[in-house]
Every structure is written in structure tokens, then in C-alpha cells.
């Protein structure tokens, strides 16, 4: 036994077991998050319950089961429920999403199994997704055009007219974010130009007349586009649908606010799968609604990826240059050792401290100075003196800088000294040796540092809350208006979106599945970014493999 322990075999098995357990735990966590998040988009069965109150009154509830749990009978009786004749130790209660938010106090309610008289799954029960007030559940009675009933199959008429409204909504969105947004941007630039001329004392009558003429031309174009936009809105409001809800009343819903309609109880497995993929596509590609509890997360995906790429562009040259100086040029003395210790210790500083530093130095000091020097006409409204994507990227670049420096130094230290001496002996300068031989050979290590930096930065939330991320950003940092790349704008982030939906949402039950869905999406984005960096690293490793021989 002693010989077996001394051979080191037990420690090998112990290490392998620990690694295996860690992998199983990580994969199990990811599977749980993925399952809870992706099942949210599956079309759930819509039930119609006949219920009774303790007083014997009967009423109807229509909705989908969101959750269920076992509740001890003693706990229910302690809460004041009589439950006469109940002999079970526990009862099942269902959390039902009823929607129809404008007609009921809450769009989620608990239903106890003792209150259920009957439960059915009518095939013609519809779920209508709306741009406001969440889903609406009920029976589609008829479709109206300009207030008159439309002949033909109700389901087909409704689907075709929703497709028509979707096309109109896309045209309106393109008009608002494209031509109208461009005119507003140009008007704002003219206002700032006039203010700048006033500050410089160069606002002559001719210059003012030119600005006024250009403003009038833009406003004339705006009125034409505004008229077109109103006409599109009027066309979108032409049709409506009458739905009978769980109260038994007919409700008229304008198709201008209807995004989709489905009859889940009447779907085949193939139709359910198609609806599931469509719902995921909408989640990834659309904007959020209803305080982030409805809609999609495209701005958050774009903001996360854009910020991480900008951070990588900033941190890579800084980290590589610092590592090259420390390893190739700095002397082997106590000062260099202190600098290395400081770099390593920076990796242990809490991320919120970096956020405070970014807010104080980048936003207030550097950004405020840029505003006073280059954008005085915009003051007191800040341009760069306000949290934005640039300051977020710089803050995270400093946060991840130690990782890149340490990884690059490790790569440089593995390159044999004979390679450097051979290059110098052949007549190359030290700079040429570094640029043509040392850096290419160390590029896989540089990419490893970048991979670790991306993994760290993509999931950070605390510093971003101080230097740029917001709950809802009306405009992306990239658009069609000059200079096209707006680094001063605030942005949305998947990590902050998870925090906001999970802890700041006014509708906790509706937000809970989105927490899992967004978490799974964040993990997917991080894995995608890392796989891209790993692919580049492997390509560089193969490309410069001959230099190692």
C-alpha cells in the first residue's frame, strides 16, 4: 500500500476525479439553464378551468400553467382556508399565466386543486402576442376591416392580416430609424453648429441665414416623411379582431398592436417545433418591451459583443507592449520585480473598484476635458463627459490588462535565448528580431491571454453599471448617421439585462424564464467569442510552428 501511495497513482486518480466532477457540475448547470430558458419559447398548452369559490360561485379562468408546487394542507389551513373534507397531507396548486393584463389585476394567479371543477384544452383557444400589455388569451370570434366583419376562414384571415401589419410596422420602423432619424440628427448638428459659431463670435447674418435655410429644407422633408408615417399607422389600424375572453365578454383588439397569434392546442409536433424556432429567432433579433419582461434582447447582444471587441482592440496592444518592455528591455532589478508584483495584484482588485476609477478618471476627468476642448457648443449637456461604451471598454481593458501581460510574458519566456542570439548574429536589429520572430512565436500565448480577458470581461456587470450600461438604450452605438460609430452612447449588456430582469422587474413571474434564457444566451455569446479567439490562436500556432523548430 505504501508503495502504491508513493507511486503517485492515488493522486492522479484523485485529480482526474476532481476534474471529472467539475466538468459534470459545469455541464449540469449549463443544461439546467438551457432547459429552463429554451422551454420558455415552446408553445404551451392553453387550458380552460371551471373553478368555484369557497362561497360556491363559479367562474372561468383561461391561461397556461407556468409552475406547480405541493403545499402542505396544514400550511393552507393556517393561512385561513377551511378545506373541509380534505384528507391529503398536501395539495397541488398551479401558477397560471392568464394574460389579459388590462382586464385582470394580475396576469399570474395561483389555482388550488380543490377549487377546480373541470379543466379542458379547447382546440380553438388562441394566444395573441401584443406589443403592449402582454399576451391575450381567448377565442377568436371574427376579424373586422374598417369596423365590418370579414368573410372567409377567420384563422386564415387573421394570419394574413397580421402579416400585412408586420410589413407595415417594418416600413414604419425603417422610416423612423432611417430617414426621420437622419433628419433629426442633421437638425441637431445644425443647432450645435449655430451654438459653436456663437461661442466663437463668428455667427454672421449670412451664416445664420444659411443655417435657417438648411433647417427649413430639413423640416419640409420631415413633414413629408411624418405624413407618410401617419398614413402607415392609419393603414395598420384598419383591421381589428374580436376575441371572447375568460369573462365571456368580447374584446376588440387592433391588429396594429398584434405581433403574432397561435393556437397551441391545435398544433402538431412539427408546427410546435417551427413556432419554437421562430420564437427564439424573435428573441435574439428584436428589441425588448414591457420593462424588459417581453420582446427580445438584440440591443443587449449587440452591446455586449461590440464592447468586448472594442475592449480587445484596446487591451491587446497595451498588454503586449507592456509585457515586451518588462521581459525584453527592463532591467532585472527590484523595481521590475515590484512592477510585476503590482501587475499580478491588479488582477485581484474587486471589479467595482475599477468601475469607480473609470467613472472618476475616464468619465468625469478625461471625458469632461474632451467636452470642454472639443464640444463646448453641446455643454451643459455632456458628450464624452457621460458614461458610454468607450469608457466601458477602457475600464474593462484596464481590468483585464494584467491577464494579457502575464500570459504574454509567459509566452516570451518560453522562447529560447538562442533564437534571439541567432537573429542578432545574422544582422537583424533587436526591433526586427522582436517584430519578425519573437512576437510571431509568442502570438499563441498572446491569444491565450486575450481569450482569458474576453471570458472575464464579457461577464462583468458591476463596473459597467457605473461607466456606460443602462436598462434600455434607444439607439445602438452604430448607425447610419455620421460618424457612424458613436462611442459616447450608452448601451445595453446581457449581464446587466439579467440583473435588471431578475431583480428590478415589476413582474417577477413573467421575468423569471427570461433570466434563464438570457443567461444561456450570455454563455453562448462568451463561448462563441472564445471559440473564435481559439480558432485564431490555433491558426497562428500552425502558421509559426516552423519557427519553434
TrEMBL record:
This is Phosphate transport system permease protein PstA. Keywords: Cell membrane, Coiled coil, Membrane, Transmembrane, Transmembrane helix, Transport. Residues 301-533 form the ABC transmembrane type-1 domain. InterPro entries: MetI-like, MetI-like_sf, Phosphate_PstA. NCBIfam families: 3a0107s02c. SUPFAM superfamilies: MetI-like (SSF161098). Gene3D superfamilies: MetI-like (1.10.3720.10). The chain crosses the membrane at residues 12-35, 297-326, 338-366, 389-412, 433-455, 514-536. The gene is pstA. It comes from Oceanimonas smirnovii. It is found in: Cell inner membrane; Cell membrane. Pfam families: BPD_transp_1. The lineage of its organism: Bacteria, Pseudomonadati, Pseudomonadota, Gammaproteobacteria, Aeromonadales. CDD domains: TM_PBP2. PANTHER family: PHOSPHATE TRANSPORT SYSTEM PERMEASE PROTEIN PSTA (PTHR43470:SF6), PHOSPHATE TRANSPORT SYSTEM PERMEASE PROTEIN PSTA-RELATED (PTHR43470).
Amino acid at each position: 500500500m505504501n508503495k502504491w501511495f508513493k507511486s503517485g497513482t492515488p493522486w492522479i486518480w484523485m485529480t482526474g476525479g476532481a476534474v471529472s466532477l467539475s466538468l459534470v457540475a459545469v455541464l449540469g448547470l449549463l443544461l439546467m439553464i438551457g432547459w429552463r430558458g429554451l422551454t420558455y419559447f415552446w408553445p404551451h398548452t392553453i387550458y380552460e378551468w371551471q373553478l368555484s369559490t369557497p362561497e360556491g360561485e363559479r367562474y372561468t379562468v383561461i391561461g397556461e400553467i407556468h409552475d406547480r408546487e405541493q403545499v402542505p394542507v396544514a400550511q393552507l389551513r393556517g393561512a385561513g382556508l377551511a378545506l373541509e373534507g380534505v384528507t391529503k397531507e398536501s395539495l397541488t396548486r398551479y401558477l397560471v399565466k392568464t394574460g389579459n393584463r388590462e382586464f385582470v389585476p394580475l396576469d399570474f394567479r395561483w389555482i388550488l386543486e380543490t377549487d377546480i371543477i373541470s379543466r379542458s384544452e379547447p382546440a380553438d383557444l388562441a394566444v395573441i402576442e401584443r406589443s403592449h400589455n402582454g399576451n391575450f388569451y381567448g377565442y377568436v370570434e371574427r376579424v373586422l376591416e374598417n369596423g365590418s366583419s370579414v368573410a372567409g376562414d377567420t384563422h386564415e384571415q387573421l394570419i394574413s392580416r397580421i402579416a400585412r401589419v408586420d410589413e407595415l410596422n417594418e416600413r414604419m420602423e425603417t422610416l423612423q430609424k432611417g430617414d426621420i432619424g437622419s433628419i433629426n440628427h442633421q437638425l441637431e448638428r445644425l443647432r450645435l453648429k449655430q451654438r459653436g459659431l456663437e461661442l466663437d463670435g463668428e455667427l454672421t447674418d449670412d451664416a445664420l441665414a444659411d443655417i435657417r435655410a438648411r433647417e427649413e429644407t430639413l423640416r419640409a422633408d420631415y413633414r413629408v416623411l411624418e405624413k407618410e408615417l401617419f398614413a402607415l399607422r392609419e393603414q395598420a389600424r384598419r383591421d381589428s379582431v374580436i376575441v371572447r375572453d375568460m369573462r365571456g365578454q368580447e374584446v376588440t383588439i387592433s391588429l396594429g398592436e398584434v405581433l403574432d397569434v397561435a393556437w397551441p392546442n391545435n398544433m402538431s409536433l412539427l408546427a410546435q417545433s417551427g413556432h419554437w424556432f421562430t420564437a427564439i429567432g424573435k428573441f435574439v433579433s428584436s428589441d425588448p418591451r414591457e420593462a424588459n419582461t417581453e420582446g427580445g434582447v438584440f440591443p443587449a447582444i449587440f452591446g455586449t459583443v461590440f464592447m468586448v471587441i472594442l475592449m480587445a482592440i484596446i487591451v491587446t496592444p497595451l498588454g503586449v507592449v507592456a509585457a515586451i518592455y518588462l521581459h525584453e528591455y527592463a532591467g532585472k532589478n527590484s523595481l521590475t520585480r515590484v512592477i510585476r508584483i503590482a501587475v499580478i495584484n491588479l488582477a485581484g482588485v474587486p471589479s467595482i473598484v475599477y468601475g469607480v476609477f473609470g467613472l472618476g478618471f475616464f468619465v468625469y476627468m478625461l471625458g469632461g476635458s474632451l467636452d470642454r476642448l472639443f464640444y463646448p457648443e453641446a455643454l451643459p449637456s455632456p458628450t464624452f463627459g457621460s458614461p458610454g461604451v468607450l469608457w466601458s471598454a477602457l475600464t474593462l481593458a484596464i481590468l483585464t490588462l494584467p491577464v494579457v501581460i502575464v500570459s504574454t510574458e509567459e509566452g516570451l519566456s518560453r522562447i529560447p535565448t538562442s533564437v534571439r542570439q541567432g537573429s542578432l548574429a545574422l544582422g537583424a536589429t533587436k526591433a526586427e528580431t522582436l517584430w519578425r520572430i519573437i512576437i510571431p512565436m509568442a502570438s499563441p500565448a498572446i491569444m491565450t491571454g486575450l481569450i482569458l480577458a474576453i471570458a472575464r470581461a464579457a461577464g462583468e456587470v458591476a463596473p459597467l453599471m457605473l461607466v456606460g450600461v443602462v436598462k434600455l438604450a434607444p439607439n445602438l452605438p452604430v448607425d447610419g448617421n455620421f460618424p457612424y460609430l458613436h462611442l459616447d452612447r450608452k448601451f445595453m449588456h446581457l449581464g446587466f439585462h439579467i440583473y435588471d430582469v431578475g431583480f428590478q422587474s415589476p413582474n417577477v413571474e413573467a421575468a423569471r424564464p427570461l433570466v434563464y434564457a438570457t443567461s444561456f444566451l450570455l454563455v453562448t455569446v462568451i463561448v462563441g467569442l472564445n471559440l473564435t479567439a481559439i480558432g485564431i490562436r490555433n491558426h497562428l500556432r500552425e502558421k509559426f510552428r516552423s519557427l519553434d523548430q
